[in-house]
Structure formats: C-alpha cells, structure tokens
Amino acid sequence: MVFDFLRRGTAQDAPERKASAAAPVVAYHGAGRVAWSPRDTVTLTRTGFAGNPVGFRSVKLIAEAGAALPLVLQDAERRYEEHPVLSLIRRPNPAQGRAELLEALYAQLLLSGDGYLEAVVGDGGLPLELHVLRSERMRVVPGADGWPVAYEYSVGGRKHRFDVSAAPVICHIRNFHPQDDHYGFSPMQAAATAVDVHNAASRWSKALLDNAARPSGAIVYAGADGQGADDGSIRPARERDGKPPSGRAQRRAADAS
Fold it and tell me: What are the φ and ψ backbone dihedral angles of 255, each rounded to 5 degrees?
C-alpha cells in the first residue's frame, strides 16, 4: 500500500501543475523578514505582561517590593509620625489602600515608562483622594514653551482635560528617555525583542506538542516526466529516519488505498 502520488505512472498520468507566476515573487518579498510586535503601550502590556509569564512575574515582583517599602515624612527639623499626608497615603481612595496604590503606580512605570497620579482637591485646596490613571489613556499637551500645560485623558470617545497651568492636579512621574521630551522610556520596550522571541518559542513548542511532538515536514520527490518515487526509493528513506509515518499519514494512506 503506497500513496497515490508515489505510484509509478506514465507522463500522461502526471497531474497538471497550476500556480500563479507572481507567487514566487511574493514569497521572496516576504521571506526572511522578522515580524516584531508593535512598541505601543497597549501591545507591550498584552505581549510582555498579560501574555508572558516572565514579564508578568518581573513586573509583579518589582511593583510589590516597591509598594512594601515604608514611607517616611519629614522636613528639615523633624520626622512626622502623624500627618494629613500620611493619612491620605494610608487610604488614598475608597477602592485602594497604600500598597495597592503604589503597586499600580510602579507597574505603570514599568509597563509604559510613565505614571500619572491624580489628586482630587477639596474646598480647602488640600487633596482628599489620590488615583493612579492608566498611562495609555493619557496624552501630554505641551505649551508654546514646550512644557506641559494640560493632560488629556481619553476613554472610548470621551475626553477629560486636566489644566495644569494654574493649580496642577496631575503628578506625572516618568522614566528617563533620551529621545522624548514628554514621555518616559518603558523598561518593557527594552525587553520587547526578548519577549517576542520567548512568546514565539512558546507557540512553536505548543504547536509541536499538538502534533504529538513530531516535527512538521514531508519527503518531496519530483521524478522525471512527473513520475513519482518507487518503493525502492521510499524504503531507504524510512529506514534512515527510523520513524513510522504519523497517524495522519497512515489515515491518508488508508484513504488512498
């Protein structure tokens, strides 16, 4: 029992080969190019944090360790054990405590290079609540002198503008960026190439396991005048490989017979 395309036949039995003349050009144009993921904050977060266990664990370890450090409030004369600022940091908003707020702030810095802290100011001019804003939703609005005059926060089709020309309510913390005046450099962007390689290797390993750990491939024989290979050519190849045909190949052989 052999495959139909391995049976010996005459030149008249050879099937007609149909292919586009432009196909080799297209294949050559795309061959050898490396496809890297985009370097925007949303993609970096999805591929480097949500889709990569090493990146996820790294960000969590650094953010949690930073949030666990004790905060000290002092001036030139004394250190304060009780102060309205300390009370605000202990309970920055109804949904978060000190550790949750700082962990979110440090994670934003690691993922995007920028951290935005909003202060909700009361009637007396003192902050009543603190909130960490998502970096990918924030846009810096520079003035004529290049310094930020406002921040725009966008969610869907809605925007809110924070004017910082008078009393700023946004604290923008950013990493050093040698090529950008307004936004910080993301550590995840520096690791993006390694993240892409790790994710691609994981997908390849998963596909290999789905195929019962058999590497993909096929023995292709193009004989003279469209003739296939005989049993004398196929048998040494099987003996050299030392592997029986896969389950799919066995089913195709059964169907061909």
Answer: -65, -35
CB 130 within 8 Å of CB 101: yes
Rg of the chain over Cα atoms, rounded to whole angstroms, equals 31
**Whole-number Å distance between alpha carbons of 188 and 237:** 47
Integer Cα distance of 139 and 122 in angstroms: 25
Q: Which two tokens stand for residue 86?
A: 């300390």
- Listed as ranges, residues in the chain with pLDDT below 50 are 1-8, 11, 26-31, 254
Which whole-number Å values give the CA distances from 129 to 71, 97, 218, 221, in the listed order?
Answer: 18, 11, 65, 73
| Residues 85-117: tens digit of each pLDDT | 999 999 999 999 999 999 999 999 999 999 999
CB 6 within 8 A of CB 252: no
Read off the pTM: 0.71
* Residues across the chain: 257
Domain extents in the chain:
41-135+167-187
pLDDT value, residue 215:
76
CA-nearest of 239, 225, 220 to 3 is 220
In this predicted structure, what is the pLDDT of residue 67? Answer: 96
Collect all residues with Cβ–Cβ distance below 8 Å to 123 and sequence separation of at least 6. Answer: none
